[in-house]
Sequence to fold (312 residues):
Amino acid sequence: MLGFQKQSGVGNIKLKNGVLMPELGLGTWKGDEAGLLAQTVKTAIDLGYRHIDCATYYRNQREIGRALKEVAVPRKDLFIVSKIFQNNHRPERVAPALDEILDELQLDYLDLLLMHWPYALSPDMGHMGFSTSDLDPVPIMDTWRAMEILVESGKVRAIGVSNFNKSILQKMLPQCRVVPAVNQVEVHPYNPEHELVAFCEISGIAVTAYCPLGGFRVDVMGDATVQAIAKAHKCTPAQVLLSWLIARGIAAIPKSTSSARLAQNLQMVPLSLDDMQSLGRITTRQRKVDPSRDTPELKWIFHESEAECPLI
Ligand SMILES: NC(=O)c1ccc[n+]([C@@H]2O[C@H](COP(=O)([O-])OP(=O)(O)OC[C@H]3O[C@@H](n4cnc5c(N)ncnc54)[C@H](OP(=O)(O)O)[C@@H]3O)[C@@H](O)[C@H]2O)c1
Fold:
C-alpha cells in the first residue's frame, strides 16, 4: 500500500503524515528578473497556485515574504516550501537556519522543509561557488535528526529531502524516526527517474519534479515526441510535460514570470496510455542540474555507479 495517495480531482498529493501538497506549484529560482518576483507570486496566487517553492539559496525569500503578506488567500490555504542550504548542515545550525527562513518569508511555520542537497559545505561558505576544500564532512543523518526535532516544534508541518538518489534513501530510511515526506528531484522525459520514483512510491515518499520543463539548459519542450503529442491535443509542449508528471503522481513546480504561461501551466491535458508510453520511451538523457560538472567529488549524487555516498 502507498504511504501517500493521489487525491482524485482536488489537485493534491496526500503526504505520508496526512498533510496535503498541491500537485502544481510555482518555482522561484531565478524568478526575480527585473524585480518581477513579488508580482509573479501575487499573480500566481490570484490564478490559483497554492504551492510556492522557495530556498535560502535563491536569495529572494524576503521579496516572496512581502508578496505573501499582500495576497488575500489565508496562510492556511497556502503550501510554502523552503530548503536548508548546505552551509547549515551541522546539527546546531539547523534550527537557526529554519528561523532565518521564517524571518525572511515573514511566516510562523513552513508546510515543508527540505534538505536541499545530500552534502554539506563549511559554515562560512557563501551561496555562490565552492571548491572541494569547502565540503564539510557532516553525516546526512546528523542533519536529518536535527530536522526531525523541528517537526515537534510546530515550525514545520513536514520535512523532506532534495536531490537524494535511491541508494542514499535505502541507507537512510532504516535510521529515520520520521521518513522524508518528499524527495524533490529533476524529472522530465530526458531524466525520467523511473526507478527512483518507483522506489519513493513504495517507501511512501512523494516526489516533486523540479525543472519540469527542462529549465533553460535542456530542450525537452522541443523534443519531437513531446511536440507531436502537444499538436494532437492542441496544447503546448509545457502542458504535455506537466500533465505527464501529474499523471505519474508526481508534483511539479514550473517557474514562469509570464502571467499567460503561469495560467497555461495550470491547465492539464488528459494524456492517453499511448501518449504516456511514448513519453516513457524517449531515450535522450540529459540533466539540467549536476554539481559534479564543477565538483567531481560529488559524482556519487547522480552517477551512483561511480562511487558510494561517503557520509550517511
Ligand atoms: N531542489 C533543487 O535542487 C532545485 C533545482 C532547480 C530548480 N528547483 C526549483 O524548481 C523550479 C523550476 O525549475 P526551473 O525554474 O529551473 O525550470 P523550469 O520550470 O523547468 O523551466 C523554466 C523555464 O521555462 C519557461 N516556461 C515556463 N512555462 C512555460 C511555458 N508554458 N511555455 C514555454 N516556456 C515556459 C520559463 O520562462 P518564462 O519565465 O519566460 O515563462 C523558464 O525559462 C525552480 O524555479 C526552483 O523553484 C529546485
